[in-house]
Amino acid sequence: MKAQYKPIVPLTSNSFKAEHQVKEKFNSPWHYHSEFELTLILSSNGVRYVGNHFEDFHEHDLVLVGPDLPHCWTTIGPQNIEASAIVIQWREDFLGKDWINCKEFEIFKNLFKMSQKGVKFDECVALKLKEKFINLVSLPPLNKLTSLLEILQELTCSTHFRTLCDQDFKDKLNHIDNERLKTVFQFVDNNFSQKITLTELSAMVCMSEESFSRFFSKVMNKPFFFFLNEYRINMACKLLLETDKSVTAIGYEAGYESFPFFHRQFKKFKKCTPHQFRKQYQLVK
């Protein structure tokens, strides 16, 4: 399976699509489409992939993804409630061929340009706009459109955001590369707590170990084992915050056979020890 192209079909006679999605869990395949997508997570947590970037997501995750940029949200572990999100999707020409060049709308140009990297807005922005997102879904058509423009204006004026992936990520991909990356991501999602070798991964994508290493580093701008350690440390952080398990047990559960190595990798990625990370969170709480 490759990163799937999924065309978005607007509701009848509407210029864009907005829906409240409720699922047992988020498990859509890594995919892309021709539309912009603005997603606000209302419940669930797990891992979000946007281009060559990945990180944990939680409630109030607010992300704008540009056209043809591969992405997915994947729920990880047992959840107490259903996964829920407001998802808004629109085509570049949804208000007409040259609407973005009209003086009234020029303010959106930079936001849309940044969306080619994926834009993650801080939780304070999500909380400020949450009610507007929820209400938008059930508004009459004209009010729905004006509400979307108001949301985009708020996001355009915000300084509380960061971009997620490399500008040229899409240019590095072809259908075969999409297929390979999706296979790797799914395998890591399902097996990060086990020993993972280049031998088994390269065989899964029909490449030699050397070719796979070069491919992954070129496309993701990071070696595979850097990516794997980054992923495991993110999973360890999730366990540190959400469970009372010992740090040692969490290290093993995250896929590390040696606690000293887990400790070193944690400090490398988080600039503190696992104990300090958990303590800092408890102080905030």
What do these coordinates show?
The protein is α+β, with helices and mostly antiparallel strands and 285 residues long. The protein folds into two domains: 4-163, Jelly Rolls, CATH 2.60.120; 192-284, Arc Repressor Mutant, subunit A. The chain contains eleven helices and eleven strands. Strands 2-9-4-7-10-11 form a six-stranded antiparallel sheet. A three-stranded antiparallel sheet has the order 6-5-8, with helices on one face. It has a two-stranded parallel ribbon with strand order 1-3. Helix 8 crosses helix 11. The longest helix is centred in the last third of the chain and has 19 residues, at 224-242.
Number of domains: 2
Please state the overall shape, judged from the principal axes of the Cα atoms.
globular
At CATH's second level, what is the architecture of the largest domain?
Answer: Sandwich
Count the DSSP helices: 11
Radius of gyration: 20 Å
The count of β-strands is 11
Structural class: alpha+beta
Spans of at least 5 consecutive residues with low confidence: 9-13
CATH class of the largest domain: Mainly Beta
| Neighbour order of strands in the largest sheet | 2-9-4-7-10-11
The description of the largest β-sheet is: 6 strands, antiparallel
Helix content: 40-55%
Which fold name corresponds to the CATH topology of the largest domain?
Jelly Rolls
Short description:
This protein has about 280 residues and is of the alpha+beta class.
How are the SSEs ordered, and which strands pair?
Blueprint lengths: L3 E2 L10 E8 L7 E2 L3 E8 L2 E5 L2 E5 L4 E4 L5 E5 L7 E8 L18 H6 L4 E3 L1 H14 L4 H17 L3 E3 L5 H4 L2 H17 L6 H7 L4 H12 L3 H19 L4 H7 L5 H12 L3 H11 L1
Parallel strand pairs: 1-3
Antiparallel strand pairs: 2-9, 4-7, 4-9, 5-6, 5-8, 7-10, 10-11
Helix pairs in contact: 2-3, 6-7, 8-11
